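queue> pop job 88
queue> type: inverse folding (structure -> sequence)
queue> payload:
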């Protein structure tokens, strides 16, 4: 199909060529105008600048906006860096706060140790828990006090509130504490206010049971449990815990000591027991006597003595 004459394309091409030619000529004219070194042309250039340049604010608006965008981006970058620094400082402050809280808790426990009311005759040595060797078969902790501090086997240990265990193994600088929850631990206790005697037997659980209670019906959950002092190993009256009813329907003891946070322990210096050097002397046999005389022989003896 032949092209129709007088179509828009036939007018666009010549017009485009004319516009490009005018633009090229204008640019060449401006180039030569700015390159001609003449006083008259210089005055013309100055007048032209004074006439048109002040009214070119609209042409500088995009450039100004672009500069503002760049400045805003730089300011945002600085704010982002400052925000990251503040976040890092905040994390450090939280860590310092946690450390301060831990120190405050340690200080509070030490104050609790210093304010526990015990027998004035009892003295103590405070030690720091170095390690916890708790396992399904053994419950014990290691203290940083030992023979150099006068520690001896069998002495009772307490935290800020309740009885924790006893010394079982003393080294020169350290000592081991068998906890009340250990299966090898057996201590005599008194249940108050009923006054029932019992044995607190460790079974590697958090709630050791009470055994050999004289009258279990006289014991109620919530009753106070303290050491009885029988056997002379532990001093009497040390707080152990409170009676609870276990899931197995046995009477158990909720220990007063905080076994989850054993950091400082007080080792109580007990009175030195008299050493047994002669076990046989504990059993004294009465003197042997002959069999009694018959009544007849006794009467004859009396008659002979009277004669």
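queue> result:
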């Amino acid at each position: 199909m032949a092209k129709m004459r007088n179509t828009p394309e036939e007018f666009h091409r010549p017009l485009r060529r004319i516009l490009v030619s005018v633009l090229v000529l204008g640019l060449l004219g401006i180039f030569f105008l700015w390159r001609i070194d003449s006083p008259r042309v210089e005055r013309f250039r100055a007048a032209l600048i004074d006439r048109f340049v002040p009214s070119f604010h609209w042409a500088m608006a995009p450039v100004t906006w672009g500069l503002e965008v760049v400045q805003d981006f730089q300011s945002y970058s600085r704010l982002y860096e400052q925000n990251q620094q503040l976040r890092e400082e905040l994390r450090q402050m939280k860590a310092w706060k946690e450390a301060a809280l831990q120190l405050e808790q340690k200080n509070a426990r030490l104050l609790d140790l210093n304010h526990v009311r015990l027998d004035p005759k009892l003295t103590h040595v405070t030690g720091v828990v170095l390690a916890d060797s708790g396992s399904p078969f053994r419950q014990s902790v290691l203290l940083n006090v030992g023979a150099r501090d006068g520690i001896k086997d069998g002495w009772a240990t307490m935290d800020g509130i309740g009885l924790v265990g006893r010394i079982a193994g003393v080294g020169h600088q350290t000592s081991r504490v068998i906890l009340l929850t250990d299966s090898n631990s057996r201590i005599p206790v008194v249940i108050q206010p009923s006054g029932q005697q019992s044995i607190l037997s460790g079974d590697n659980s958090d709630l050791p049971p009470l055994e050999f209670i004289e009258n279990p019906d006289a014991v109620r959950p919530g009753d106070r449990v303290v050491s009885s002092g029988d056997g002379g190993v532990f001093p009497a009256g040390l707080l152990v815990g409170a009676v609870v009813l276990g899931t197995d329907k046995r009477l158990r003891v909720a220990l007063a000591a905080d076994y989850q946070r054993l950091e400082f322990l007080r080792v109580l210096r007990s009175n030195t027991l008299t050493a047994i050097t002669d076990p046989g002397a504990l059993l004294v046999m009465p003197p042997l006597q002959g069999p009694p005389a018959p009544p007849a022989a006794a009467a004859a003896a009396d008659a002979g003595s009277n004669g």
